[in-house]
């Protein structure tokens, strides 16, 4: 990504080259991401994906771009061999900085990315920017074709992915306060686990959504009612594990399911998840007088969630969704967040970079409160 300017002002960007490698087919038999397999696949694929990306950008020229400190890839020998080959085959491209995700996520996979970024940065003499995956989801939702929209604050972000469900309030760029999050399963996980109970392979979110749309179009009547967890509670927290339990109970009661029943289940699952997400977002938007609603993460690719959020909130605030391709994990969102911090001079000390599996975005309202009380006591 080539970019200039400041977010919310004169920011402009162009994607010079982009590559995406999905491991979904490899993990599908396990019904979820299998950590050691993810680590191995990252080791094998990072150099080919980087090569493809640089080639697309037209910045891959034969030559030699030096060596890296070999201790950086002590734990990734396959990657070390591939990177050594790569560096001795191609010249250093015109890159100013490298952005890398440090969390949240699976630590074995995060470490491979971090160590790879450190090795590349050491060979090319470039600074590193540490990126929070969830911030990538927020910022990419504001992207236009060559810039970002001028966000009117306060902005409320609903972040819904395979591992996270959060409501985050921003009073300005680079300011995040978590006002709600899931107490157990994430929204994407609720889609995936319900799908699995219906015999739909991982990740089941997109297929549930397709079946649910068919059920609506075909007017299939609903014989089951699933819970809307925490819908009527005041808090902005979520809980989706009870939904999965209810799906299991109903599936066991009715099995074997025919195709019509599967569609009915899919619709009820999607209705239940979307109703809770939309209702809490709308209530939070009102409470915090949000002028902008941002929806990000893999579940933001769900077209029913998108139409329901628009229907409920368009008259109240500006609603921003990423395009479905940019809703699910991608490198562009990390480049975006990376540039955002690089432009503010926030580079990372490579020796301090760590994989942070449980990294959160912003402090929660209770954490903020605890911090304040603590300071007052001093
Ligand atoms: O953000 P993401 O790509 O990866 C994580 O950071 O977790 O989100 C993946 C999640 C999966 O749970 C997947 O089922 C869900 O997003 N997802 C969807 C749809 N597309 C992806 N859920 C519902 N409807 C969709 N169309
Ligand atoms: Zn994600």
| Principal-axis shape | globular
How many individual helices? 13
Secondary-structure content class = alpha/beta
The assembly state of the depicted protein chains is single chain
Helical amount among residues, as a percent range?
A: 40-55%
- How many strands, what sense, and barrel or not for the largest sheet? 6 strands, mixed
How large is the radius of gyration? 22 Å
**Between the first and last Cα atoms, what is the distance in angstroms?**
46 Å
The percentage of residues in β strands lies in 5-15%
What are the secondary-structure elements, in order, as H or E? Answer: EEHHHEHEHEEEHHHHEHEHHEH
Q: Look at the structure and give the mean pLDDT.
A: 95
Q: What features would you highlight for this structure?
A:
binds 5'-O-[(R)-(carboxyoxy)(hydroxy)phosphoryl]adenosine; alpha/beta; about 375 residues; two-stranded antiparallel sheet; single chain; 6-stranded mixed sheet; binds zinc ion
Can you describe what's shown?
This protein is an alpha/beta fold and 378 residues long. The chain is built from 13 helices and ten strands. It has helices spanning 24-27, 35-56, 77-89, 107-124, 133-141, 187-197, 205-217, 241-254, 259-287, 303-313, 324-327, 331-343, 365-377; strands at residues 2-4, 12-14, 98-103, 128-132, 155-160, 165-170, 177-181, 292-296, 318-320, 363-364. It has a six-stranded mixed beta sheet, sandwiched between helices. A hairpin with a 7-residue loop joins strand 1 and strand 2 (12-14). The termini are far apart. It binds 5'-O-[(R)-(carboxyoxy)(hydroxy)phosphoryl]adenosine (KG4) and zinc ion (ZN). Residues 133, 137, 161, 297-298, 329 line the site of zinc ion.
């Amino acid at each position: 990504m080539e970019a200039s300017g400041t977010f919310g002002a004169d920011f402009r960007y162009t994607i010079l080259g982009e590559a995406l490698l999905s491991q979904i087919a490899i993990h599908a038999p396990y019904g979820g991401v299998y950590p050691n397999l993810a680590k191995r696949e990252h080791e094998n694929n990072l150099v080919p994906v980087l090569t493809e990306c640089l080639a697309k950008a037209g910045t891959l020229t034969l030559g030699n771009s030096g060596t890296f400190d070999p201790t950086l890839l002590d734990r990734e020998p396959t990657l070390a061999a591939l990177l050594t080959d790569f560096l001795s085959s191609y010249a250093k491209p015109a890159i100013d900085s490298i952005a890398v995700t440090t969390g949240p996520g699976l630590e074995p996979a995060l470490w491979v990315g971090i160590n790879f970024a450190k090795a590349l940065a050491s060979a090319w003499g470039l600074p590193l920017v540490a990126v929070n995956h969830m911030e990538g989801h927020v910022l990419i939702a504001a992207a236009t074709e060559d810039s970002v929209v001028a966000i009117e604050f306060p902005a409320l972000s609903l972040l819904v992915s395979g591992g996270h469900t959060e409501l985050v309030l921003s009073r300005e760029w680079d300011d995040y306060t978590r006002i709600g999050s899931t107490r157990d399963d994430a929204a994407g996980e609720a889609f995936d686990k319900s799908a699995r109970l219906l015999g739909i392979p991982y990740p089941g979110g997109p297929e549930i959504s397709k079946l649910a749309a068919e059920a609506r179009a075909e007017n299939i009547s609903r014989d089951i009612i699933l819970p809307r967890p925490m819908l009527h509670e005041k808090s902005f927290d979520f809980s989706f594990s009870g939904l999965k339990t209810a799906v299991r109970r109903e599936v066991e009661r009715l099995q074997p399911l025919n195709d019509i029943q599967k569609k009915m289940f899919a619709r009820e699952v999607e209705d239940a998840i979307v109703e809770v997400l939309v209702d809490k977002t709308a209530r939070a938007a009102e409470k915090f007088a949000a002028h902008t609603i941002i929806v990000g993460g893999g579940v933001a690719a769900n077209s029913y969630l998108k139409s329901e959020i628009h229907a409920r909130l368009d008259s109240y605030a500006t609603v921003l969704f990423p395009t479905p391709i940019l809703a699910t994990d991608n490198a562009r969102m990390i480049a975006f967040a990376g540039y955002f911090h690089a432009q503010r001079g926030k580079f990372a000390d490579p020796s301090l970079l760590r994989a942070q599996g449980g990294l959160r975005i912003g402090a929660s309202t209770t954490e903020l409160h605890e911090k304040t009380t603590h300071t007052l006591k001093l």
